[in-house]
Design goal:
Arc Repressor Mutant, subunit A; globular; alpha/beta; 43% helix; Rossmann fold; three-stranded antiparallel sheet
Length: 361
């Protein structure tokens, strides 16, 4: 067996959750070793038995590999360099997902757009308006390919020349709802992607959608709720994004409309910031700020050698995440790095963006 088949086998292990699999991958570095090693050293010298590869698991993994080859789908794995960093930073991140299309999951600007399946004319209008306005900022739109707000967001993204990623609550071989099949093909044809963490033939069962929602929230810098009832799945997605310390935005609606209750409540409880346009989002995210030329930026600011080390790295890697800064600057402890970043922010040299990423002013 090759590494791909071992990777595909992981999802069929009984009683081993994503968190445990991520820890095993962090320890061994690859899926092959998870199965070929017999034991893992535990506390007090105890040996912990590792998962065993059965004939049934091997058969199912081979079926998945055949589906991938047949459909031109690919696998994005937790240990891969191109696994989305935003998603990897989430404690409950999946350890892999399938995708068809282009890997657009690490674009510089990512916004999740969610809302009710029972979209009103108002909801349709505001979704089209705001998504089209975000085209000015070259944003990738993430949504769930459901009826209503999701479908309108994907459609408008494609029409506006934006990349869009559809996170599915089924396997990639089952487009749900089937009324969105043409839309799904168009998303891929226009340089976007369909993705799912579920095996190919997985049906769109109810319990899959909360899992899907965490990927929608985790893959984006911000989540935008267009129109939703108080108990809608979009409210859950908004709270997931909030728990990830990501920005949440909501469009206010008619106080007499049940499909606006969720947005109005998110705003009232300070979970979401009120927005009415794409420009509102860009301003709150800091996307409308133009970086100053380096010669102007440093003209009146004296930097220490430590500060220069930080700014040189941020200059070379705009929108670098705090975790990557920590790894790339091992000479500084986390507290020292946090202090240096704060000093540079106060001096107006760098800007802290949502999701704890940094760029030069």
């Amino acid at each position: 067996m090759n590494e791909l088949l071992y990777r595909l086998s992981l999802q069929f292990l009984s009683g081993v959750g994503p968190g445990s699999i991520r820890k095993l991958l962090q320890h061994f570095g690859n899926a092959t070793s998870v199965f070929t090693e017999k034991h893992l050293a535990g506390p007090a010298g105890r040996k912990i038995s590792l998962p065993q590869l059965t004939d049934e698991i091997r058969r199912r993994a081979e079926q998945e590999a055949a589906w991938m080859e047949k459909t031109g789908s690919r696998l994005c794995f937790y240990t891969d360099a191109d696994f989305p960093k935003r998603l990897k930073n989430c404690a409950d991140s999946p350890y892999m997902f399938y995708y068809r299309g282009e890997n657009v999951f690490s674009m510089q600007k990512m916004v999740a757009v969610v809302g009710t399946r029972n979209i009103s004319p108002y909801g349709k209008d505001i979704t089209r308006k705001i998504v089209s306005e975000l085209a000015e900022h070259d944003v990738c739109i993430v949504s769930g390919l459901a009826r209503g707000v999701d479908a309108v967001a994907h459609e408008q993204a494609v029409e506006s020349g934006l990349k869009t990623a559809a996170v599915m609550g089924s396997g990639l071989s089952i487009i749900y709802p089937d009324t969105n099949e043409q839309l799904a093909h168009r998303i891929v044809a226009e340089g976007g992607a369909l993705l799912s963490e579920f095996p190919f033939k997985t049906k769109p069962d109810r319990q899959n959608f909360p899992q899907r929602n965490r990927i929608i929230a985790g893959m984006a810098d911000a989540t935008l709720v267009m129109e939703t009832a108080n108990k809608g799945g979009s409210v859950i997605t908004a709270h997931i994004a909030h728990s990830y310390n990501r920005d949440v935005f909501a469009v206010p609606g008619n106080i007499f409309s049940p499909t606006s209750e969720g947005c109005n409540t998110l705003i009232r409880t300070n979970v979401a910031a009120l927005v009415t346009s794409g420009n509102d989002i860009a301003e709150l995210m800091g996307w409308d700020l133009q970086p100053q030329p380096a010669v102007q930026r440093n003209l009146f600011v004296e930097l220490s050698e430590k500060e220069k080390a930080v700014t040189e790295l941020i200059t070379a890697h705009p929108h670098i995440a705090i975790d990557d800064l920590t790894v790339s600057l091992p000479q500084f402890s986390p507290s020292q790095l946090a202090s240096l970043l704060l000093q540079l922010e106060l001096k107006g040299v760098i800007q802290c963006l949502p999701g704890k990423t940094f760029r030069m002013y």
